Amino acid sequence: MFLVVLIGAAGAVTGAGRAQSASAADTVKATFVQRFASFVSWPDGAFATSDAPMQICVLGSAPFSAVVRSTAREQSVGGRPIVVRDLEDPAAARSCHVLYATGASADEALRAVQGFPVLTVTDGASRSSGRGIIHFVVVDNRVRFHIDDAQAAHNKLTISSRLLSLALSVRGREDE
Amino acid sequence: MLGKKSSLFYAVGMSCGVALAMDCTPALAQATDHLNELSIEDLSKVEVTSVSRRAQPVGEAPASVFVITSDDIERSGIRSIPGALRLAPNLQVARLAASDYAITSRGFNHSTGTANKLLVLVDGRIVYTPLFSGVFWDEQNPIMEDLDRIEVVGGPGGTLWGANAVNGVINILSRDAHETTGLLATGGASDTAGSLGLRYGARLGQSGAFRVYAAALNRGPDNKQTENLQGGFRSDWSNASDTLTFQGDIYRGDADAVPGAVSRARIDGGNLLARWSRRFDGNSSLQVQAYADRANRLVVSGIRADVDSAAIDAQANFAPVLSHEIVVGGGFRVTSDEFRPGPKTVFTDPADRTLHYSNIYAQDTIKLSHTLNLILGLKLEDNDYTGVEYLPNARLSWTIAPDQLAWGAVSRAVRTPSRFDSDLINPGLLAGGPDFMSEEVVAYEIGYRAQPSTNFWFSASAFYNVYDDLRTIEASSAHVFPLVVRNGMEGKTYGLEAWGAYALTDWWRLNFGLSLLQKDLALKPGSADVFGVDYAGNDPDYQVTLRSLMDVGRRTTLDVSMRAIDSLPSPAVPAYTAVDVRLNFRVTDNLEIGIGGYNLLDDSHVEFINPSLPASTFSRSFFASARWRH
């Protein structure tokens, strides 16, 4: 009897629970997003100069980009400073090195960067259907991810085996 | 290297969520500062939200919590749950015979190996027996590589976990099936034991995974050589908001015939569990779990005891306003036993009994300020023997600095009557415990935890427990017999639990643990107890553990562990020191081999004595093992 009451009560309060600051999962995801770059090599020409900044773009979630910005503060990747940008226009995504895409225009941005050297990251917790090269899921209370190495190859990116070994699943390159 | 040292703290720190339902919001703010110092591998292990309880680093849990990680277990090469529990400084683990262990926290390890003041759960399933409130450790033989972690809480956990969580809670958690895909084969042999394990796991579609396993464990070294076989499965499905788990195990165990015994000892049983949880936006979640469990046992005196149990639990976590985080839950459990006496032994009256337990609970974590959290919680638990029991707790935690936490707690817990307390009859000798009530503890605890530098952290807690209505066996008349079970003892215990880790270099770290215990027990006025206060528990005053963990190059680990255990008073067991050494070598990415020795210092030692059985001695032994993954 009280089981039923409990379940009802939990449903009623979930609305009230929404106004929360960054969740632990978002914080870990944000840390991953800026760390992934260390395990990926970009083709020649992806950076204008040898010390040009690593551009991490966040599309569709201003709160998440704030978390990425705060975790990326004072961090660098291979000597490159990190710049975190809020992306408004999905068409501008080709100028990013890492693109975290969520929300209504995520699929458009994913299509826009196909074949360009952009590491795309999507999140199983968001409702958009498209998947990036790296796709977050929360498994057993831990943030894990799937890797689409075939798409990485298409975008001329090489993902280190260390990162691949951490993936829940890897969609392999067809030419290997 | 900073990251590696720091992960010391987090390997223990971030995985503790299930143990305690306490606030984590300030913890997250601090955790964020450290995430960048973790390796990417460790980052993928950071617990972000716990299904049943709010996730929080151990550094924030206002309780004496030690987490045995899967890394600890794999490195140590330990092949049994009791062996793994030796890694927790806040537990006392003593081996009685091949597969029999006496395990407790904060004392009261009973001379018959039936410590009864711990709550032990395996993936949320209660595994202590309603017969005497203790745990048959020989019923738990999973593949150790499939364990995610073991959380050990010293002290009462009654508010969240319920009756029997008097001196501690042990929470054994297996890995999500997504994390155990592929083939695993393990094997080990020593002069006194052998083990084999085989597991296969794979993904099921986009969001599911499963594994199946079988394990065999043969243990000596004495006249009670035992063999355990266990198999089972676990499957998990998860999407953005929901997680669904089904799992089950079956097992059997046989022991060699004992001279003069009526029968060979034999156990068999199994369980099935289903759990569904949903995460909502923000920090809310809901979980419902149900399971059924069967445990059949035939012992050498010819007694057969079969126990079926089933339970359903639900829990919701939510934060109605920012300064409050609430956990509410409830559950219902039924146990149904059949007790068949041997040719000339005790029986239970009634012979078979079905017992019902139901509970509801609520706990609120109140953010008093940026650094102060107050936790208030209460569980009401109803049982067929004593009716409704109140299990409240109040905890205060003070985050002195991001890397320092002080906490204090007052809590009450009970051990409700078991079948053997109330219903066990031996004609003319023992007349049960018709008036037996719950045993009670009120525990006062304080603790301090800190990470003074990136390569050193420690945790210390002190407790003062006030017990009342402890079990005694008393004369019923001037003629003494028949004896009856009553609640004629009271008293206090106090002690200290401390542990920590120090990284000498990025490839060499030291872990230490210490537990101290003093008992001051007395019979209550009017008690006609016949066994004396020593009968309540046979405990060491101190226990010291030291472990040296070295990563010698990328493929080799060399670990040395030492434990020194004080003597036991009654029955007397001398103090002993045991040293174990293990060398692991990763031959290829798939194959790992290990060699080592146990008890290298002594020719033999006794760990615990059951006065009605010959004592088992454990001597120096050597082992080799292999682990293959694909």
Descriptive notes:
The complex is a heterodimer of chains A (176) and B (630). With 176 residues, chain A is α/β, with parallel strands linked by helices. Chain A is 30% helix and 25% strand. Chain A has 6 helices and 10 strands. In chain A, the strands form 2 sheets. Chain A has an 8-stranded mixed beta sheet with strand order 3-4-2-5-6-7-8-10, with helices on both faces. In chain A, strands 1-9 form a two-stranded antiparallel sheet. In chain A, a hairpin with a 2-residue loop joins β7 and β8 (142-148). The longest helix of chain A has 13 residues, at 24-36. Chain A is globular, with a radius of gyration of 18 Å. The N and C termini of chain A lie far apart (58 Å). The model of chain A is unreliable at 1-22 (pLDDT under 50). Chain B has 630 residues and is mainly beta. Helices cover 7% and strands 55% of the residues of chain B. Chain B contains 7 helices and 34 strands. Chain B has a 22-stranded antiparallel β-barrel. Chain B has a 5-stranded mixed beta sheet with strand order 1-6-7-4-5. In chain B, strands 17-22-23 form a 3-stranded antiparallel beta sheet. The longest helix of chain B has 12 residues, at 2-13. The radius of gyration of chain B is 24 Å and the shape is globular. The two termini of chain B are 30 Å apart. Mean pLDDT of chain B is 86; it is low at 1-33 and 49-58. The interface between A and B is large, with 45 and 56 residues.
How would you briefly describe this protein structure?
The complex is a heterodimer of chains A (176) and B (630). Chain A is of the alpha/beta class and 176 residues long.
Query: Hey, roughly how much beta strand do the residues of chain A contain?
Result: 25-35%
Q: Please tell me the overall pLDDT of chain B.
A: 86
Most extensive chain-chain interface: A-B, 45 and 56 residues
Q: Strand percentage of chain B, roughly?
A: over 45%
Percent helix range of chain B: under 10%
Structural class of chain B: mainly beta
Number of helical stretches of at least 4 residues of chain B: 7
The separation of the N and C termini of chain A measures 58 Å
**Backbone shape of chain A:** globular
Radius of gyration of chain A: 18 Å
Let me know the number of strands of chain A: 10
Shape of chain B: globular
Whole-number mean pLDDT of chain A = 78
Measured between the Cα atoms of the first and last residue of chain B, the distance is: 30 Å
